[in-house]
Design a protein that fits this description.
With 327 residues, the chain is α/β, with parallel strands linked by helices. It is built from 12 helices and 14 strands.
């Protein structure tokens, strides 16, 4: 991460709900003008973390500071520099998209004229024009989300927290949100993003924290995380489930395999040169089964997430299970 000012810092941040620990000893620094993503499945603790940062709930233990303000002691100051857009649109259903934005601007202290001006800017930025005069209750979920995000930027904050901002959006709406995020960061806004989408974190984040059961299991840039699980790999996709079984049994003795039964695919760490790659191809050929694909690939963030938050069944155990199933 850069040497710019640290604007969010947590130290041992913990949240318990009775006996359940939702967030466990979470430590993080977020630097100004960056996009930091919390990446993890439902229940990993992402939303609980952002709700603590936004002063909506208090930590059970540990501390968190936003622009130097303590989230427990200095709640008003925190809310003056941070804007949170949650997972569900906080809009008035019986107002139009434009009326919702004007209402939010007026509530934030804009004059009538200034509220109209900022509303027009947001309508253009989020491509709301085609449904600007429709009641919010009558538009699609993706359109509602775009209005909700626009409302969060009536006043541009130093830190914008987006909690799963593109969940349920259509591809066009998602691209609009991504484009707006990039524009905001270019103007110096710091973005704290939670997401379940690996491609979203990969495309937008400068720094990624992988969360699992309330704990940070790994962190770094997307390339850092990918490099932790090795370099290139050879993927072999079998034509059918029986072919996958034969590939596993035929190649286990000579190669370290990772198996995906759902994709009918085995992955082998890539050899050092093309000649060795030919060895892998010949070994697959010698097994004598039909394959749909043999390809050389680099690790993805998806690979890193699966490897760093949960290990697959060991190869030798899979081979044993397949062998026993054939008896």
């Amino acid at each position: 991460m850069s040497t710019s000012e640290v604007v969010v810092v947590t130290d041992g941040l913990t949240k318990r709900f009775d006996e359940f620990v939702a967030v466990d000893q979470f430590n993080l620094e977020v630097r100004e003008g960056t996009v930091v993503s919390l990446l993890g499945p439902n229940g990993a603790g992402k939303t609980t973390i952002v709700r603590m940062l936004a002063t909506l709930i208090e930590p059970s233990a540990g501390t968190a500071k936003v622009c130097g303000y303590d989230v427990v002691k200095d709640g008003d100051a925190v809310r003056s520099v941070l804007s949170l857009t949650g997972q569900f649109a906080a809009l008035e259903d019986n107002l139009t998209a434009r009326e919702n934005l004007i209402l939010m601007a007026r509530l934030r202290g804009y004059s009538r004229k200034s509220a109209a001006r900022v509303t027009e800017d947001l309508i253009e930025r989020f491509e709301i024009g085609e449904f600007r005069d429709k009641l919010v209750k009558s538009v699609s979920g993706g359109q509602r989300r775009r209005v909700d995000l626009a409302a969060s930027l009536v006043v541009q904050p130093r830190i914008l927290v987006l909690d799963e901002p593109t969940t349920g959006l259509d591809p066009r709406s998602r691209q609009v949100v991504w484009s707006t995020i990039r524009e905001l960061v270019a103007t110096g806004v710091t973005l704290f993003l939670t997401t379940q989408y690996l491609e979203e974190a990969d495309a937008l984040a400068d720094y990624i924290v992988l969360l699992d059961h309330g704990r940070a299991t790994a962190e770094g840039t997307a390339n850092d995380l990918k490099s932790q699980i090795g370099d290139q790999r050879v993927d072999v996709v079998a034509a059918d489930a029986e072919g996958l079984e034969k590939l596993v049994l035929g190649l286990t003795a000579n190669f370290h395999l990772t198996i995906s039964t759902e994709q009918r695919m085995i992955s082998i760490p890539a050899p050092d040169d093309v000649n060795d790659l030919a060895v892998v191809a010949r070994a697959v050929h010698d097994v004598g089964v039909e394959v749909d694909e043999i390809a050389l690939r680099r690790p993805t963030l998806d690979d890193a997430f699966l490897a760093l938050t949960g290990q697959p069944l060991p190869t030798d155990q899979i081979a044993t299970d397949l062998e026993e199933s054939r008896r």
